[in-house]
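Is pyridoxal-5'-phosphate placement plausible here? Inputs below.
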Amino acid sequence: MNEMIPGIRPTIRDVHPYVAGKTTEQVRRELGLSSVVKLGSNENPYAPFPTALEAMQAALATIHTYPENSFVELRRRIGSLYDLSGDHVAIAHGAGGMLETIARAFVQPGDEVVTLSPTYGLYREISRFMGAEIVTVPVAEDHATRMEDLVAAVTPATKIVWLCNPNNPTGTVTRPADLTPLLDALPPHGWVVVDEAYAEFADAEVLPDSVSAVRSGRHVIVVRTFSKAYGLAGARMGYALADPATITAIDTVAEPFNANRVGIAGATATLDGGLAEVRAAVEKIRNGRARLEAALAELGMEVVSTHTNFVFFALPDGHQADAVADALLHRGVIVRSAAGWGYPRHMRVTVGTEEENETFLRAFREVLDG
Ligand SMILES: Cc1ncc(COP(=O)(O)O)c(C=O)c1O
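Reply from A.M.:
I modeled the complex. Tokens:
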């Protein structure tokens, strides 16, 4: 279809539009349901937190004016979380916006980029759009990423290794938790972009010390988001950590005013006085996750041990994830079938509140019982 439009970039032919999860409003409207539980997009069910909400409401008073373009204060606060300066931080509309900006800064036609399979789909689409060849590394049998497989995929043409860690949709991490072999294998123009969107839900020791690698000037860009643990998905706030020269290059190709006043206010207030609210919610989610994993295992699901705020599991033989997800949707529960990732029997369910998890489990039992 796109190729019929005169002048359109030919690489658009290779790009699939991003498939977003349904919102609760959409499902209520489309299916005429009064109550809908959304466990499809890995959001934080305990947010928005009072500290962020108050600051965001206050920010509306100046919404008619542009935000500051250099984000000096927010960058300084984010940097100090990691013992880095604000010069090591770039801001964007969500981690998604940051990934796209990084692709724009680095990826050229003919480059190779390495991604996992399955993984978050945006890496492939933005790289194809920039004209790159995609080299895919399947996760291992236990659904974890093996460092040796990533290293083996690197060639002299590798520009970026898009490493989702913990990985979406599997919830697994790269083993062993040390980036050095991968960084050592890169050609001189090669970079590892570690997308740590879910890092706050993982135990620190299962993740590589990617920030140390930034500090010591290795070719690493760390991407993080306020959308998951921080509960600000609708405010679209993400960031990158990298050496200051790389940050300047990223900012050069970024859209002007790459974050809005409301998002900036919410993120800043959270870092100033709302971290305890975030930590308490993460703790509740981790506890809920353990209960959800146990309940699913008890129902006979093959549960993949997760380091995130979602659970990836296989249905028993004879069940199809698309059909089960659809039946759940009609009962007012939004989850993700993994069929689109090539896993027709697997599903991905976000850890919600205790009540939401119970609602899901009740509906799920009904669907399985037919
Ligand atoms: C691995 C991963 N990276 C990035 C994103 C995008 O996050 P954001 O809302 O910050 O754009 C997501 C969202 O689901 C994700 O799962």
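Short version: The chain has a mean pLDDT of 96.
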